[in-house]
Amino acid sequence: MLTSSEVEELLRGMIIRRLGKRDLSQLFELNVKAFREDAATTGLSVDRLSRAAKLYSLIDTLLPLFDVFHKDFETILVAVSGNKLIGEIHLSPHGKKIWNLYSSAIDVMFRGRGVFRKLMEEALEYISKRHGERVFGSVRTDKIPVVKTFRKLKFEVFETRVLLRFEQDEIPTVDFDAGESIREFRPTDIEQIYQVCKSLSPRRMQVYKMTPADFLDSLLSRMMNRITWSYSKKWVMEMKGKIVGYVHFTYTPPQEAGKIESFCVLPSNKSSRLQSVFLSEVLRFLAAGNIRKVTASLNEEWRETIEIFERFGFKPFASVSEMVKELV
Ligand SMILES: CC(C)(COP(=O)(O)OP(=O)(O)OC[C@H]1O[C@@H](n2cnc3c(N)ncnc32)[C@H](O)[C@@H]1OP(=O)(O)O)[C@@H](O)C(=O)NCCC(=O)NCCS
Fold first, then answer.
1. 4-132: which CATH number, 3.30.390.50, 3.40.630.30, 3.30.43.10, 1.10.10.10?
2. Confidence (pLDDT) at 20
């Protein structure tokens, strides 16, 4: 426990820099404490985050080399004073000069003193220097300091999503009709999947400047999945040989937790039933691997889809503002 004058003293000496190996144990401790509640909700512990952080810190020594070749790499900025780690924020590039900011945490003794805002400002500076043009953040609407700071820094909301958690043991089965099937995604599907998802989320696809190639996993995301014990599945739904749906979900067997990352079914008079078939198959696949803690995030305007998820036993627990800021 620090006295308030010790906190003031440390804040005066605080600097913000890239994560180094020496910060790892404090970073892990900070994350365990700061994300205890979020971890209980998603079923994912921060062990995965700490493994990812280890990779970033290994890469730390190589970053100057990446800079020479104008290659950007995911990193973490830390606020430190002497040997004390005060806070952190993750920065992740997505090609095409687009970056994402996420998982910021401040030591509880130092909260409410503008450290998060300073980390955000440094993060934007870091991204600007690397010629980033657009920055995203997914902000839980109940995290007031985060909402306030994003607004203050002129981020704008482009979508609101509902977070849902699956809380049921029974999974209803829904029968396929003739001509309908589900299969694993193939790289040659990307153009059709792009069109299906674009018809449902035109704004999202536009702000993320998504192209069909974005439906392929990068080498880095495959590497990160390995490191964080995560598996990724992509399935398509076909009706008479035409792709009418796409789902991407991830799961972490040691933690029995899964997440539906994308869920798109082409609107039609059959889409309600098709969505039920798709969801049922995903949940049954996960349950077969003992994965029953499943979360999903859906656009709040997709009332029909949200109702289907709720009928399967998903319950909304938070909402998220998807925010964007142009740097140029
Ligand atoms: C959310 C969190 C990162 C905020 O960090 P922080 O350093 O305390 O935030 P700041 O001091 O920079 O505050 C930012 C703004 O929110 C305001 N604020 C801070 N705490 C507040 C509170 N409890 N209620 C209302 N406003 C608050 C500040 O006054 C400031 O507003 P201002 O710029 O108008 O003065 C920190 O609370 C935390 O680590 N939480 C746990 C992990 C987490 O939830 N992370 C966010 C999800 S990624």
1. 3.40.630.30
2. 83
